[in-house]
Amino acid sequence: MGFFDTRQLDHGAAIDADVCIVGAGAAGITLARELIGARCRVALLESGDLVFRHRAQFLYRGENRGVDNFPTTHSRFRMFGGSTTRWAGQCRPLTPLDFERRDTIPYSGWPFGFDHLAPFYRRAQPVCNLPSDDFDPLSWSRREGNSLSVPSDRLDSKVFQFSYPRDFGRSYRQELEAAPNIDVYLNANVIQIETGDGGDSVTGVRVATFNKKQIRFVAPFFVLACGGIENPRLLLASRDANPNGLGNRFDLVGRFFMDHPYFLSGYYDPASPALSRNFYTIDSYDRVGREQKAHAALALKEPLLRKSGVNGAALYFVRRPRYKMLPAYFSPAGRSFTHMMDIMSHSDVPNRRFGQHLCNILRGLDVIALNLSRQALEPFRPRPLLGLRTILEATPNPDSRVTLTQRRDPFGLPRVSVDWRLNRRDLDGFKELLSTIRAEFDRLGLGRLVEDDAVDEAGWPQSMTGGKHHIGTTRMHVDPREGVVDPNCRVHGMSNLYIAGSSVFPTSGCVNPTLTIVALTIRLADHLKQKLL
């Protein structure tokens, strides 16, 4: 009962529980909270500590063989609270279309529809500390005094709310400490999932600590809740019963890796100064949640999406200094310089492309000098721009995947290789949305979009980054030949192993995943409670 430092436990100890949860991020903490007061003992295992430590964080180190600018080391955070300790807090549900099978998007479709998940979304909203259960753009627009009205039969306004407070670790630590049936184990690094002779049930998980202790946790039910990279890593590395890993009979574990591409593809030049203050703008990420409770984004209406067959996208504005919107800032030299500055300020950690970043900087000293001069002038001539920020739905691709390498971490666990591949047609959703907004703003006399056409070698916007939303690697499907988990999030072929988090999403939509993660986890908790009766 309470929090335990696994490093202080006896080497070789065996700990019994009824439910063992691996990972204390949004999914793991939500599941533990939902089981408070249930007739079961819960062990919640967290590799990190209550505070951020680089030694634990570097366990994420791996290779990136796909889309550039994807950092395996610092795209998640290994501490109690997980990545909720660092996120901006943007939340909204997936749309009904996101759950449907779309003929133009292979591998799309969930085992259930939006209506099935709707009651769980309602229960998830207070867990995510959202200001309201209302996502209606009209009511929010009246509340916020929006100056920018976009009446259109082609465009929808989608409301994103901001979670506040955002850190699940801080928000729910005391509640979990006080719960009589919840035990939280910090600095507990799971290194193997053990199975019985038949390989169809988990008998325990082995945990190691940095002070060379090993502990075994035993329970009737196990839940992996450690993210879209670590979930498949543990499955693939646990080979006692199957040389290909657990749940991997059909070579699906780790496949269909998705993240949300984000672009800053130019800026909005409003027709009048009054339009620059609007509900479609994030003025400052320092203010979101505490002061700015929500914002809207523009997206194609669902009938138009169905007709065109393109993937989803949503666009909103971000108020940024002018120098951060010009092509030089997003050049290879500019991006590498920004990365190095983030390392020096301890807001980022080095990755294995450190040498490449140095080369980019040396080759582009003139570009960096230009950026720095523009930055120095900004306080004297502030002219912020409304950057066009787009979040894009990446569609499922079986060749986009997480695999294991020959390298090993300090506990002997194979490190990962992430090969994030985007389907070329994914750009269609972005282009269709941008051209529609351009035409509708011209028609309504709202101003113009000043677009940045700079692209990388693969034809993607030069400003593209990943959203650090790891999706799809243990996807959900009724058929084990097409998914790793069943509709109840149980691993196919395993009687007592479940997975929570965005790794079970069959598709990604074009919204941040946390609210859906929490909704699905609440649904899983209800299922486990029935099993525990």
Give me the count of strands.
Answer: 22
Q: Fraction of residues in helices?
A: 25-40%
CATH topology of one domain: FAD/NAD(P)-binding domain
Uncertain ranges: none
Total DSSP helices: 12
Write the layout of secondary structure elements.
Blueprint: E1 2-5, E2 14-16, E3 19-22, H1 26-34, E4 42-45, H2 54-57, E5 62-64, E6 90-91, H3 114-127, H4 137-144, E7 155-162, H5 168-178, E8 182-186, E9 189-195, E10 202-208, E11 214-218, E12 221-224, H6 227-237, E13 261-270, E14 281-282, E15 294-300, H7 302-308, E16 313-320, H8 332-344, H9 354-363, H10 365-377, E17 385-392, E18 401-408, E19 414-419, H11 426-444, E20 447-451, E21 465-466, E22 497-499, H12 514-532
Parallel strand pairs: 1-8, 2-11, 3-4, 3-12, 4-8, 5-19, 12-22, 14-16
Antiparallel strand pairs: 6-7, 7-15, 9-10, 10-11, 13-17, 13-20, 13-21, 16-17, 18-19
Helix pairs in contact: 1-5, 1-12, 3-12, 8-9
Briefly say what this structure is:
This protein has a domain at 1-128 and 164-258 and 468-533: FAD/NAD(P)-binding domain (3-Layer(bba) Sandwich).
Q: Could you please describe the fold and organization of this structure?
A:
Helix 1 packs parallel to helix 5 and helix 3 crosses helix 12. The protein has a domain of 289 residues: FAD/NAD(P)-binding domain (3-Layer(bba) Sandwich). The chain has 533 residues and is α/β, with parallel strands linked by helices. Strands 1-8-4-3-12-22 form a 6-stranded parallel sheet. Helix content is 26%, strand content 22%. The protein is built from 12 helices and 22 strands. The mean pLDDT is 92. A hairpin with a 6-residue loop joins strand 9 and strand 10. The protein starts with a strand and ends with a helix.
